[in-house]
Amino acid sequence: MTNSKGLTFHPDLTQFLADRQAAYYTTLSGGNNSGKSVLLKNMKIHLGRRAYMAGPQRFYHIYELSTQRWNLQDYDNWDQSFRQNFYQEEANTETNFIDLGRVIGALKDAKRQQLFELCGSLIGSHFDLKRREEDNDLSPRYVDMDGQNLSVGSTGTRLLMTLLGLCMDEQFDMMLIDEPELGLSPRVQGELARFFADKERRDQYFPHLKGIFVATHSHIFLDRSNIGNNFTVTKTDRDVDIRQVQSMTQLHDLQFNMLGNSLEALFLPSAFIICEGKTDKPFIERLIQLRHPGRRVLVIDSQGDVKRMFRTLSQSLGDIYKSPFRSRTFVVLDSVHTPGTRQDLIDMGALPDNVIVWDKNGIEYVYPPQIVAEVFSCGSSDLPSLSITGDEISLNGITRRKTALCAEVVGAMSAETKQSGELEQKLLAPLAAALGD
Between the chain's N and C termini, which has fewer beta carbons within 10 Å? Predict the structure, then answer.
């Protein structure tokens, strides 16, 4: 379907709406200028007057409620105004035609009480309708929130009440909401998202609604109980693609993308590296600091039990098979380890390429060759003769304890230090790829 602005939707918008006819909740996610808003506008044009699009310009003050009668012809006028704006070549309609005063004032008493009840349950406040002068029946009315006029309440509260009130208007059977997260705290976003996705609860308050579509930048509004309700929207030139999320992996990727591709934004590490030896940890940590400054990679000393540590980490991350951390979790093993360890880790969910086994038994064999050669006063060609016995490392008549050698190596390393080819190939390259660096 090609709209008036020359955009073509894939799939065809008629087909997309037909496919979503039986759905109660649909999320549309994508970056700025991905086509989400224009998709909602075209849906509104396609669906007609019984669909309402709540644009992002819905910030309202409300001091007193009007007692005037509302004219049903207003709905036709609003629909006509939307269409006129839509078909203007240079127009970009962001208007919300029904303000909060009109939303509240048009509801019947029972519906209005339901609105106050629902909004109160989502944000933890009490709402009521009161007169300016309690002993005057003709006194103007206002909305009381926890003992104060709603007009001095938070912007988010008024935004939330506007959305819920629009959904309660029985003149509409489809609701299209652009950026429902505006002005709402993460907790309230979560409450509203769960409410929208729960048809049984929705039917208690607005059973007339056949469906709700939201275009959002917030991962909180994604439907995790029914992943097929989530779609990504992308625009290339004049083509807008609408793609359904079809797996938990895709859902996690979408959520990760909406978080800015940065787990640090949640104060989480970018990656995990589980290692065996006590000197592995300080060496790898210093290596990460030099190669990926500013990135948080958590290096974990397994204290000799990598399988137990991997299992514990996997349980803390949820289902490792579906976690965005799966590709960012590495296990480093010496060449000598308990038989079957590598396969057991893979069976537990580790990616095969992320289970690293050194060619020789010890992290010391992959230390920077130039630094090790300087410590033992030898040439790089002599390094294959390095001998490790227990906690001691010997070469060319010089002996160092593992911790002492590690400290010397770590202290001498810089960002320009050339690392061993095995270390680059097996750990550093895959880690950089996982981090996107």
Answer: C
pLDDT range class, residue 2, cuts 50, 70, 90: very low
**Cα 53 from Cα 30, distance rounded (Å):** 18
Quick one: which of 193, 119, 214, 108 has its CA closest to 162?
119
Residue type, 210: K
Q: What is the DSSP string of 96-160?
A: -SS-HHHHHHHS-HHHHHHHHHHHHHHHT--EEEEESSTT-TTSPEEEEETTEEGGGS-HHHHHH
Q: What is the mean pLDDT of the chain?
A: 88
d(CA 4, CA 119): 38
Percent residues over pLDDT 70 in the chain: 94
Q: Which two tokens stand for residue 147?
A: 């003992």
Q: What are phi and psi of 9, to 5 degrees?
A: -100, 140
How many domains are there within the chain?
2
| H helices present in 273-385, as ranges | 280-291, 306-316, 341-347, 369-375
Residue 305: its pLDDT value, please? 87
Q: How do residues 346-403 score in pLDDT, each as one tens digit?
A: 999 999 999 999 999 889 999 999 999 999 999 989 999 999 998 899 999 999 999 9
Give the range of the structural domain holding residue 276, as residue numbers without chain letter.
264-435
Q: Are residues 185 and 325 in the same domain?
A: no
Cα(1)–Cα(233) distance, rounded to whole angstroms?
A: 15
**Helices and strands per DSSP (H, E), number in the chain:** 16, 17
